[in-house]
């Protein structure tokens, strides 16, 4: 009985340590994403921060995010961020239309965006293990790990539903980073196995 009490108290301490870190990271991520053209860069930086926190928990969030953000610019970040936001607005617009074919088109575009996000999460974390980090390689590795991809999709949908339905205030505080944490943990565990690290 005492062993279970110790385990449950350790779990509570870990949760108590992680929630402020997630809130701080979510705030830094939101602020750096405010100019829409930096959405890709700040999301990639947040995922790499989460990956670093798995090995070194005691790093200060703001300094770590700033260091990774400054060293993590890619050529097509601004265009990709802008196109992703335009696609999001199109999904919202198409789902508001009364006709069935526009709704189907909106759902198709939404699922394409979700698939793109999943492949991007594999590509971002793949950059830690392999310098040849192309979308094609990330897509192929994700395709070989369909169980992980399905788990990513289902757990993300469940978390979004829970946060938006029951804890909408909490979603603003830790929701986006909570989803990134889930994806980072799932993908990185699979990539460590693949590269024997």
Descriptive report:
The mean pLDDT is 78. The protein has two domains: 1-73, no CATH class; 77-196, no CATH class. The chain is an all-alpha fold and 197 residues long. α1 (2-33) runs antiparallel to α2. The longest helix is centred in the N-terminal third of the chain and has 32 residues, at 2-33. Helices cover 83% and strands 0% of the residues.
Number of helices: 8
Main sheet specs: none
Provide the residue-averaged pLDDT. Answer: 78
Work out the strand percent: under 5%
Task: Decide which structural class fits the backbone.
Answer: mainly alpha
Helix content: over 70%
Report, as a whole number of angstroms, the end-to-end distance.
36 Å
Brief overview:
With 197 residues, the protein is mainly α. The protein has helices at residues 2-33, 39-55, 61-70, 77-96, 100-126, 135-144, 146-165, 168-194.
């Amino acid at each position: 009985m005492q062993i279970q009490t110790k385990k449950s108290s350790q779990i509570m301490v870990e949760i108590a340590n992680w929630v402020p870190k997630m809130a701080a990271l979510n705030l830094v991520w939101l602020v750096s994403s405010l100019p829409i053209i930096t959405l890709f860069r700040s999301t990639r930086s947040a995922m790499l921060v989460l990956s670093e926190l798995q090995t070194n928990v005691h790093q200060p969030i703001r300094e770590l995010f700033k260091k990774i953000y400054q060293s993590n610019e890619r050529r097509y970040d601004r265009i990709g961020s802008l196109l992703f936001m335009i696609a999001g607005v199109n999904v919202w617009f198409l789902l508001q239309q009364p006709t069935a074919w526009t709704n189907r088109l909106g759902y198709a575009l939404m699922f394409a965006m979700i698939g793109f996000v999943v492949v991007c999460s594999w590509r971002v974390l793949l950059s830690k293990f392999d310098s040849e980090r192309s979308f094609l390689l990330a897509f192929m590795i994700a395709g070989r790990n369909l169980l992980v991809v399905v788990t990513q999709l289902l757990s993300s949908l469940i978390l979004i539903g829970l946060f938006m339905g029951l804890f909408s205030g909490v979603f603003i505080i830790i929701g986006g980073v909570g989803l990134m944490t889930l994806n980072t943990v799932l993908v990185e565990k699979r990539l460590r196995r693949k590269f024997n690290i």
